[in-house]
Amino acid sequence: MSSTRVLMGVLLAALLLTLRPQTLGGSAAYLTVDQPGIEPALFPGDLAIVRMQDDYREGDLIAVQTLEGPFFGRIIGADETAYRVVFQGTTDAVAVPGEYIVGRLWFNLGVFGRRIGSGILDAFGLQAEAAR
Questions:
Q1: pTM (global) more than 0.90
Q2: Under a CB-based contact definition with an 8 Å cutoff, are residues 64 and 123 in contact?
Q3: Which of 42, 58, 59, 94 could form an SS bridge with 37, CB 3.0 to 4.6 Å?
Q4: Domains of the chain and CATH, by start
């Protein structure tokens, strides 16, 4: 086996581990934006990949799990018990405990997500969850 094939195999394995969804024990979640998002970062129809982090910082764009499904918001501060998050269309900060954060926006597939991203997920038996 050539060293190029070994290298390609190692890179592919690393990529798959990095992109493994939370439902399969990974740190990534795949979310489609179904309402106006935090523009200009996210628009309706975008496929966003968020990843769990050990810690989040002021300015991070995050997905928060609620009873109504995930919502995108921006962290504007934090204290010992929660992050202060502002959601699209509001100016009031909401206290969000860390266990409700799905992850920080890692990559927005944008047009790619709208056109073929969901087809790729379907091919692997995965589904992107709708987020607001």
A1: no
A2: no
A3: 42
A4: 3-131 (2.10.109.10)
